[in-house]
Specification:
Shape: globular
Distance between the termini: 45 Å
Order of helices and strands: EHEEHEHEHHEHHEHHHHEEE
CATH architecture of one domain: Alpha-Beta Complex
Number of helices: 11
Radius of gyration: 19 Å
Structural class: alpha/beta
CATH superfamily of one domain: Spore Coat Polysaccharide Biosynthesis Protein SpsA, Chain A
Length: 307
């Protein structure tokens, strides 16, 4: 790896996780890691005097018209002192060469993003892994979508003022960044654990449904049509569709280097997709990290603190 410019890494979190330590151990002497939380009441705030050199705690405050994560990212961007920026999340493993590889990839491609592979932790999220593989992994790769869990760019790569203005009016940080940033997705996945209970998985599904609806309306209509046609075919021709869908998912898993048995759930996943899509559309609000959000339109968000 060639010499890299000073970089700001932004992690929105309320507690110091293993991911924070992983990234802190990778920053160079000129880099900074900004751990962004809401306020002094968050667990990570009490540890701010114990952090290593180059790590700062940033307080974002309560979100007013956006999600807590979008508010944290905006605060991190404004506190950042460097031009090269990395966003990442606190819930997946960051190997020792994670940051170095992103730098190498940026030098070759410009703005880059890695891909998530969501791994279920409860019966429903396990069942939905094939759907996550298509929408959350393959879809991000094919459609040049930003994943906020691992993205590197420079301030000059986007209209930062306009981006920050819109970021603090919506829910999805990576949804907005995708609209401002010409990014190259890397065919490199990070396993992100999701769910934990069926209720958590349902809330997450509502949020994801609304993200697609508001940020990609045409894609949302296509998703509805494909889901309905797939369901009809699966009901009318169960055996051939089970074989076809399973082999399709196996191909997707292998293409992204994922070795999990859940590709076998492709057929039952197809049967529940339409009911879950309708459920996501019908719900007027959802819960995400101790806040309930009513997301009426792309830039119309109301957040209620549940703590």
């Amino acid at each position: 790896m060639t010499d890299t410019p000073p970089t700001t890494i932004i992690i929105p979190t309320t507690s110091w996780t293993t991911a924070c330590s992983d990234v802190a151990n990778q920053i160079g002497p000129k880099d900074e890691l900004l751990v962004v939380c809401d306020d002094q009441s968050n667990d990570v705030a009490a540890q701010q005097d114990d952090r290593t050199d180059g790590v700062r705690i940033v307080f974002a405050g309560e979100p007013k018209r956006c999600s807590g994560k979008a508010n944290a990212i905006a605060a991190g961007m404004r506190a950042a002192t460097h031009d090269r920026i990395v966003w990442t999340d606190d819930d997946f493993e960051h190997p020792t060469d994670w940051l170095a590889n992103l730098h190498d990839n940026y030098e070759e491609n410009g703005p880059v993003t890695e891909l998530p592979f969501f791994v279920g932790r409860d019966p429903l999220s396990i069942l939905l892994e094939p759907m996550y593989a298509i929408g959350g992994t393959l879809g991000v790769y094919v459609d040049d979508i930003v994943w906020g869990g691992a993205v590197m760019f420079e301030r000059s790569d986007l209209n930062e003022a306009a981006f920050l203005r819109e970021l603090q009016q919506t829910v999805s940080d990576d949804g907005i960044l995708t609209e401002y940033l010409d990014v190259t997705p890397l065919r490199r996945t990070r396993r992100v654990p999701v769910g934990g209970s069926i209720r958590e998985t349902l809330e997450r599904h509502v949020r994801f449904t609304k993200i697609v609806r508001f940020h990609d309306p045409k894609g949302f209509v296509s998703m509805i049509i494909v889901s309905i046609l797939s369901l009809i075919a699966a009901v009318m021709f169960p055996l051939p569709m089970a074989v076809f869908l399973t082999m399709l998912q196996l191909g997707v898993y292998r293409a992204f280097g994922v070795h999990r048995w859940t590709f076998l759930l492709a057929y039952p996943t197809t049967l529940v997709q339409v009911p879950l899509l309708l459920y996501g559309l019908a719900r007027r609000s959802f819960v995400w990290n101790d806040r309930r959000y009513r997301w009426r339109s792309k830039f119309d968000v109301m957040a209620i603190d549940l703590k």
